[in-house]
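batch_manifest entry 22 of 60
target: Ribosomal RNA small subunit methyltransferase A
source organism: Agromyces humatus
requested by: lab member K.T.
priority: normal
notes from requester: please return C-alpha cells only, no post-processing; we will run our own comparison against the previous entry in this batch. if the run fails, retry once and flag.
--- input ---
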Amino acid sequence: VTPRLLGPAEIRDLAQLLDVTPTKKLGQNFVHDANTVRRIVQTAGVERGETVLEIGPGLGSLTLGLLEAGASVIAVEIDRRLAEQLPHTVRIMQPGTELHVVHDDALRVTELPGEPVRLVANLPYNVSVPVLLHLLVHFPSLRSGIVMVQAEVGHRLAAEPGSKIYGAPSVKAAWYGRWRIAGQVSRMVFWPVPNVDSVLVGFERADVPGTEAERIATFAIIDAAFQQRRKMLRQALSGVLGGSSAAATSVLARAGIAPESRGEQLTMDDFLRIARAAR
Ligand code: SAM
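--- output ---
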C-alpha cells in the first residue's frame, strides 16, 4: 500500500529524486515523523472542508496531514522544485484531495486562489515573524492558526509585558489577537536536524484595535522603543515623537504614560495611545 504521510524513507527518496540539498537560507528542515504531523493538524483543530493556508510545504509532510484531515489546502512555496513536485506527491499519496500550489515568496504574496480561514505551517525560521505579520495584514479571512517556529521566537510571540523576552514581535502580534504556546516539538523530527527545538504557537484573531494608519504609526513607535530597550521612553522615542526628549515627554504625558518607563512595560494598547496622542 502507498503510505498517506511522509516518513524517513519517503523524505529521503523524494529529496534524492529532486536532487534537493536542504538550504539553511530557506530554512529547509523537513518533518519526517507522521505522529508529529498528525499532532499539529489535531492541535490546529482543522475541520473537514475548510480552506487552510500552508506556507512552505517543502516535500509535503504537513500538506499531506492537512489533506488527510479533509482540508482544502493552499500552499505557498518559494522553491520551484518543491512547488512543482508537490502536486505529483499528493496525486500519488492522497488522490482526490484538493490542493492549490502557489510558487511565490510568502513575504510578497498578496493574492491567493481562495479564502483561507486557518493558517497551519512549519515556518521557515529566519523569516517566521515577518511572514506572520505579512499574512495577517493581507489576508483578513485568516481567523486562527497554528505555526511551528523556533522555541525562542514562539515564546517571544506569546510573551506578556514585563517579561524579559517581551519585544517588538510580542506587541505587534498582539495587535492581531491572542497568542499562546500550544506544544513543544523536538528537533529530532526534522531532516536535517536543526540546532534548536521548536514550539507550536497558536493564535486567534481579534478585531484590530485601530485603523491601518494607526497601526503603521503604532508599529513605528514600537520599533523605536525596542531598538533602545534599555533607555527610558522619553529618550528612546525622541526621534519619532517630535525630535526631542521634551517633545516626546509631552506626547507621553498626553497618552498617560510615564516618560521614565521602558517599552518592555507597555501593552499594545499603551503604544496605540501614544500613537494617537502624537497626531
Ligand atoms: N512544511 C515542510 C515540513 O514541515 O516538512 C517544510 C518546512 S521548512 C521548515 C520551510 C519551508 O519554507 C521550505 O520548504 C522552504 O523552501 C520554504 N520557504 C522558505 N522561505 C520561504 C518564503 N519566503 N516563502 C515561501 N516559502 C518559503
